[in-house]
Structures are given as structure tokens and as C-alpha cells.
Amino acid sequence: MTHRRRLPLAALLLLAACAPAASPVSEPTALSAEQVQALCAGNPRVGDRGLLLWGPPEEETSLPGPYDVTCPDVTLTHSGTEVTVRAATLGDALARFTEDAFLLAYYADLRVRLPGPGVVSADAPDEVPEALRDDLAGIDVTVTPQGGSPQALLSGGRLTPLRFDAALPLTVRIRTRRTVNPWPTVVLDPKAGTVRATLGR
């Protein structure tokens, strides 16, 4: 049972940057049928650094990776370097990541968004206070459709919403210079209802 406290993304990124190199990947944690049943009934979700969470907030249970859990409505896999969530729709898969996971966040709470089918945008960079605008100059976000070329969604603090074939998988890459992004590469597959996210180092 764990009790979690929300930290600013900047603090989380600083901790990630100072963390030691990951140890060799081990096998997924073996769970009994009863444990899987309880986990699936507890609204399983992915939290900070890919931690698997389930149960109500006041009695939240957690399991670090690697793990491989299949529920009737979702599959959650942590390989040690990547987290994959597969659900009925892409929206359902994205909803399995908690706010504290900061999936698709490019700066603090500002995130890449999917406002409609085939549309990729992001929270406006002008929401960042003037004193911190220089930080945005070191952030680049590109979106690459399957079989296509990377296109700049955010570069030099300038946001350019993009449109793609709504059925194509998209790769979102977030590059930062001063900090480590928790999920530098995220592959979104609308057809398969899958999110595949690489853990930052």
C-alpha cells in the first residue's frame, strides 16, 4: 500500500537525471490468478516511471516494472525500458496513464494533445512565464507518421499543429537539452488502441 505525493515535473526530471544507470532487465513479476483478478478489478494504471498502480487512491497498491498483465479491457506491459498499454481505443489506452506519469509532457504540465482524429497539437508555449521562456528554446517535439518524415510540432518555442491520416501510427519524440524527459519517445497507434512509451534515462 502506498501514499503518493505529487511533485513538480522539474523535480522529477532532476531526480531522473541523477539516477544511476538501470540494472539488467529481469523477468516480469509472476502474479497468481487471484492477484491478477484483484489488480484488474482495481482500475490498473501507469504512474511515474512506469509504476503499475491499482486500487482507490487511499489504498493504492503499486508494482514496479518489469510486469506483464492482461485484463479483460486492457493489457499493460513494462519491459524494463518501455511501457506498452493496449486497450479498446487509443483514448482508453492514454487514459491509463496518470497525471503524475507526465506522458507526452514537453515542459512542466504542458503536453502534446490529440484534440481530434488525425490532429496533433499541444498546450500553448505562451502559458510559460516570460522569465522561463528561454527553457523552451531547447525543446523540440517532432511527430512522424508511419512511413513518413518527421514534422516539427514544437521548435524554438513555436507551436505548429499538425494533421495526419487518422489510421496511421504516429511517433512523438520530445528532445530536451537541460533535463531528461520521462518519456522521450511515444508511439501512438489508433488502429490497435496502443500506446508504446520509452522510459527516459
Estimate what percentage of residues fall within beta strands. 25-35%
Strand runs, count? 16
SSE order, one letter for each helix or strand: HHEEEEEEHEEEHEEEEEEE
| Residue-averaged pLDDT | 88
List low-confidence stretches. 1-24
Helix/strand-derived class? alpha+beta
Number of helices, counting only DSSP H or I runs of 4 residues or more: 4
Tertiary shape: globular
Give the CA-CA distance, first to last residue.
27 Å
Strands across the major sheet, in which order? 4-5-6-16-15-14-10-11-12
Please give a handful of descriptors for the protein shown.
14% helix; alpha+beta; nine-stranded antiparallel beta sheet; 201 residues; four-stranded antiparallel beta sheet; single chain; 4 helices; 2 domains; Immunoglobulin-like; disordered N terminus
Question: Would you mind describing this structure in some detail?
Answer:
The protein is α+β, with helices and mostly antiparallel strands and 201 residues long. The protein folds into 2 domains: 9-100, no CATH class; 110-181, Immunoglobulin-like. Helix content is 14%, strand content 35%. It is built from 4 helices and 16 strands. The strands form 3 sheets. A 9-stranded antiparallel beta sheet has the order 4-5-6-16-15-14-10-11-12. A hairpin with a 2-residue loop joins strand 8 and strand 9 (119-122). The longest helix is centred in the first third of the chain and has 10 residues, at 9-18.
